[in-house]
Specification:
alpha/beta, 2 domains, Rossmann fold, 5-stranded parallel β-sheet, 14 helices, 10 strands, binds 5-phosphoarabinonic acid, 53% helix
Length: 377
């Protein structure tokens, strides 16, 4: 299990109340999910992944935010070699990026996994339109529909309605699980299985964490809350494995969207060492002292491990509180555990700051403003 390098007095009564609160929340479905996964759906995911592997060289994964970052984080970190190649689209409004993705797929056989809980988000909707056109041009409408996999709400939304009308294979984003807590649902599991990640092991790691990481996750949540109250308003997630850059991105989204509301929260930032020791390293060592550092300490090679040790010592000397998360393994099981650990810690921490971990009113503001501007044109 994940090991933390610090101890902290916590308010047990408050913690128990918070944990109960999260479990009772209408968006708390992720809490027990790894232990209670619907095995019927799990089998359907594997079956769909097998079909995609057999008939496609590329799977175009379309989605943004919580419908994208989690699976990309694991795929980039573990770099599985056995599956279909994944191309990402719909995670920005850049026409240039979309063209690059279309060019990359080129004349190769491909399928699409379009992922959007609301089914109305603009970025994925635009990319889906472009790739669907390409798919229909290549295979005709009927075969194109059989190559589209839609992961969305069970009952509503534009994507849901289209999937039903066109007969796409559908997977559900559970009503009681929000985007950034959804990586261990079909949102993440289908692309992960297609890419060749062992999703049994991933869920096994997460299921073990449901009880196994409560204590360290809660202590970490209290630690960041207390540091935040002392004026440490920035948390820098540090990893020494370059392939975990997207895991940092997932962490930033998880904490940023869950905690940054009502003028509360800790700003999440990230570095990858030793690369960033030659850029942000100077600031970390000697800049403004408003930040603390959370090292995601994966098992690594001997030289890299020495760098971890050196950074811990140097940054502590430099006056930065350094929190260390020792991750037991750099594999599916380790990532399953880590994902659950951070989801739980983040929800508890947001509650300590007195905000709702599961909504994102600020993101909705941007979505609404953009819709209005586009409607005016
Ligand atoms: O965590 C969240 O809820 C958000 O980041 C959403 O995942 C993101 O805005 C995409 O939304 P949707 O899946 O509805 O397209």
């Amino acid at each position: 299990m994940i090991k933390i390098n610090f101890n902290i007095e916590i308010d047990e009564k408050k913690t128990t109340e918070i944990l109960k609160d999260i479990a009772r929340d209408k968006m708390g479905g992720w809490m027990e999910l790894p232990k209670k996964y619907d095995m019927g759906e799990f089998a359907r995911i594997k079956e769909a992944a097998k079909k995609i592997n057999e008939e496609s060289e590329y799977l175009v994964c379309i989605g943004i935010g919580g419908s994208y970052l989690g699976h990309r984080a694991i795929i980039e970190a573990l770099r599985p070699q056995s599956g279909t190649k994944i191309v990402y689209a719909g995670n920005s409004l850049s026409k240039r990026e979309l063209d690059y993705a279309l060019e990359e797929v080129g004349d190769h056989d491909f399928s699409i996994n379009v992922i959007s809980k609301s089914g109305t988000t603009l970025e994925p909707a635009i990319a889906f339109g472009a790739f669907k056109e390409k798919l229909i041009e290549k295979y005709g409408s009927k075969e194109a529909a059989s190559r589209i996999y839609a992961t969305t709400d069970a009952k509503k939304g534009a994507l849901h309605d289209e999937a039903v009308a066109e007969g796409y294979t559908m997977f559900v984003v559970p009503e009681n699980i929000g985007g950034r807590y959804s990586v261990l649902t079909a949102v993440g599991l289908l692309p992960l299985a297609v890419a060749g990640v062992d999703i049994d092991k991933l869920l096994e790691g997460a299921a073990g964490a449901v009880e196994g990481v409560v204590e360290p996750a809660v202590k970490y949540a209290w630690m960041r809350y207390k540091l935040g109250k002392k004026g440490y308003d920035t948390e820098v997630f540090a990893s020494f494995e370059p392939s975990t850059m997207y895991f940092n991105e997932w962490l930033k989204q998880l904490f940023g969207e869950s905690e940054g509301k009502n003028k509360q929260g800790i700003f999440p930032a990230s570095v990858v060492y030793s690369t960033d020791l030659h850029s942000l390293g100077q600031f970390m060592q000697d800049g403004r002292r408003n930040l603390f550092e959370t090292i995601i300490d994966f098992p690594t090679d001997e030289l890299n491990a020495k760098a971890v040790q050196a950074v811990r010592l140097a940054h502590t000397e430099g006056g930065i509180p350094v929190l260390n998360m020792g991750v037991p393994s750099f594999d599916e099981k380790g990532f399953g555990e880590l994902i659950y650990f951070f989801e739980l810690a983040c929800a508890v921490s947001a509650k300590l700051f007195g905000v709702n971990p599961f909504d994102q009113p600020g993101v909705e503001n941007y979505k609404n403003e953009l819709k209005k501007i586009m409607a005016e044109e």
